[in-house]
Amino acid sequence: MSPTPPARRLRLGMPRRVFSQILLMQLAIAAGVVVLATGLFLAPLSDQLDDQAMRRALAVAQTTAAVPQIAEDLRRTPPSVDGPVQQAAERIRKASGAEYVVVMDLRGTRWSHTEPQEVGGHVSTDPSEALAGRDVMEIDNGTLGRSARGKVPLRDGDGRIVGAVSVGIEYDSVRARLIHAIPGLFAYAGGALAVGALAAWLISRRVQRQTRDLAFSDISALLSEREAMLHGIREGVVALDRAGRVRLLNDEAQRLLGIGEEAVGRSPDEALGEGRTSDVLAGRVTGTDLVAVRGQRVLVVNRMPTDDGGAVATLRDRTELEQLGRELDSTHGLIDALRAQDHEHANRMHTLLGLLELEMYDDAVDFVDEVVGDHRATAEQVTEKIGDPLLAALLVGKATVAAERGVALWISDGTRLPDRLIDPRGLVTVVGNLVDNALDAVAGTAHARVEVELRTEGRSVVLRVRDTGPGVPAEHHESIFTEGWSTKKPPAHGKRGIGLSLVRRLAERQGGGASVRDALGGGAEFTVVLPEALTEAEPEPALTAPAQGTVEEESR
Q1: Domain end marker among 317, 334, 349
Q2: Cβ neighbours for 445, distance < 8 A, ≥ 6 positions apart
Q3: Which of 63-77, 272-286, 293-307 bottoms out in mean pLDDT, i.e. has the lowest?
């Protein structure tokens, strides 16, 4: 017969499952505690039973010595099997259940004994202490074997010591009592072990559910993998406990938030200070893809509650994508502007060609100056009021599109926006959607006009877009921001009702809001407030002084 393959051999050892290991360990601990407690109980019990036996023997001896007739008979009669001392001692022995009651004289001669042939002989143990007037308790070996003994002096009526009384309790009876008590002790110990086993099983089942019946090695591997994953991914991860305190920060989260390991155990407000980032991490602001600003970084935060009452927040750095976003939006704006100028440019070229063919050269020069001057004026007006190049390019392109559709797009005189936007891409999306919506609203109406106003209040940006269209009924001032809501039929290639809902969602992600009301003179006025949309201004006295003077001169 071939030997069993090594992989199939029965291996004895600790089981792999956490449930089984914990159950066995707890059973071993409970059994050890029971054995230890039983041993600690039995050791003093034996000593206590010995002490009780010796005290009982001493009490019987004292009772025997207290009988006056025994001392009198010891003095006036010789030792005899039928003598009064032997008879009195035997009555006391039988009545007390003692093993023996020995009465002796000053020489140590027995006057009584359980075995008659020992009467008249010398005692086998030293009686000197009792004859000297001291009570003695001991466990010793005598002619009748091992016994618990009590010895006391025997005194006559005048108090003189005339002998001694020795009483023995058979030691085997003490042992029998101890052995008799052991089954009860083991019964209690077994009950305690059963209760401990039940408790161990319940605890093990709970641990099994919480650990999903994994082995300790699996849990250790998962922890190692978690550490490697958390510190290796390019997203920040912040874990909070049920009390709202930070309990985990990976390396990327520390970099993005500008904090270290000292933040663990503290609340977001304590670690980061009050602000939108702390509000988002603490769950006071809810939603998905929430925008928060930490220093010069724009972060996108998502927070997910956990089963234990805590939460895990992920952080994505949007700052690194801003350059790509700017380039992409600039390209889109350029494409829109080129598309809008295509027909107009062709018409102007045809007009210029006609003037040249008619040899109206002066009129051709005036026409070219007028066309170039219109475009220069529009670009200069926008860039003077709006410092962010991306947003300025968008409005220049939208002005061209509006002119093609017969709509006047105006930049309000109150518009002033420095080049300090934290999230220019988001503001471009908001402005583009509102302007497009306004252009659609005024299309085909007389004296169509759209006005855009961008101004700052501290670090907040306030955007207003007014149009001369039919306006929005009061009962739809809220529903107009609902995704899918529109007064127009959806196109064949897509759906409507997306732009305004996107505007409100982007504003709310940054802690702001969007609303609509009736404009003065008719039409609708949309207002978007973006708090903390600007970075802190950097003081540049040498550069800002001339600009302020220029503004004052223009105002005059």
Answers
A1: 317
A2: 468, 469, 470
A3: 293-307
User: Quick check: is 302 in a domain?
Assistant: yes
Q: Are residues 310 and 433 in the same domain?
A: no
In a domain, 199, yes or no: no
Q: Give the Cα separation of 86 and 92 in Å (integer).
A: 10
Q: Model pTM greater than 0.90? A: no
d(CA 115, CA 148): 18
- Verify that 52 and 160 share a domain, yes or no: yes
Could you give the residue ranges of the DSSP H alpha helices within 283-388?
322-357, 361-385
Cα–Cα dist 99/115, whole Å: 11
Q: Give the contacts of 433 (CB within 8 A, at least 6 positions apart).
A: 499, 500, 502, 503
Give the 3-state secondary structure of residue 535. Answer: coil
Task: Say how far residue 454 (Cα) sits from the centre of its chain.
Answer: 44
Question: Does residue 213 form part of some domain?
Answer: no
Q: How many CA atoms does the CB half-sphere of 138 hold within 13 Å?
A: 14
Three-class SS state of 526: strand
**Which stretch of 117-131, 184-198, 394-408, 532-546 has the lowest confidence by average pLDDT?**
532-546
Closest CA to 398 of 369, 366, 368, 436: 436
Percent of all residues in the chain with a pLDDT value above 90, rounded to a whole number: 12
Based on C-alpha coordinates, what's the Rg of the chain? Answer: 53
Read off φ and ψ for residue 180, nearest 5 degrees: -65, -30
Question: Do 170 and 282 belong to one domain?
Answer: no
Q: What Å distances lie between residue 433 and 227, 335, 464, CA to CA?
A: 43, 16, 12
Number of domains in the chain: 3
- 298, 341: one domain: no
Using the 8-state DSSP alphabet, how is residue 191 labeled? Answer: H
CA distance 316 to 237: 9
Residue that finishes a domain, picked among 136, 151, 177: 177
Of the listed ranges 39-53, 99-113, 144-158, 314-328, the least confidently predicted one is 314-328
Strand-pair category, 513-518 with 297-305: unpaired
550 and 420 in one domain? yes
29: domain range?
23-177
Burial classification of residue 277, based on how many CB atoms lie within 10 Å of its CB (0-12 exposed, 13-18 middle, 19 or more buried): buried
- CATH number where 245 lies: 3.30.450.20
Helices (H), 211-275: 216-232, 251-257, 268-272
Does 390 map to a domain?
Answer: yes
pLDDT, mean of residues 347-366: 78
Cα angle 302-304-307, degrees, rounded to a multiple of 5: 170
Cβ atoms 277, 214 nearer than 8 A: no
Residues near 236 by Cβ (< 8 Å), separated by ≥ 6? Answer: 250, 252, 253, 254, 255, 256, 257, 299, 314, 315, 316, 317
Residues 245 and 148 in one domain: no
Are 189 and 125 a contacting pair, CB within 8 Å?
no
| Helix (H) or strand (E) run with residue 428 in it | helix 424-442
Which pLDDT score, from 0 to 100, does residue 145 have? 60
